[in-house]
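seq:
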Amino acid sequence: MEHDPEPGVEPGIDGIKQMMNMFYSAFPDLKVTVNQLVAERDLVVGHMTTEGTQTGEFMGIPASGKKISITEMNMVRISNGKAVEH
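struct:
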């Protein structure tokens, strides 16, 4: 379950795949660095840095050639070896 999907993206695994395809199309050099990963019981928390260059359109924003750097944290609940909540 995706609690906060991006505008125009359906919730769930298909929406996550759709969003990742949009990212990789707009930022083909996209690189995600895991800075820290913590797991306890059924929860995994990741602190990551995502970087890339926007060479394609992204969510209506034309290609700019600019580099981005996003620092983020994500919490995922795991059940039966699969991510079931984000």
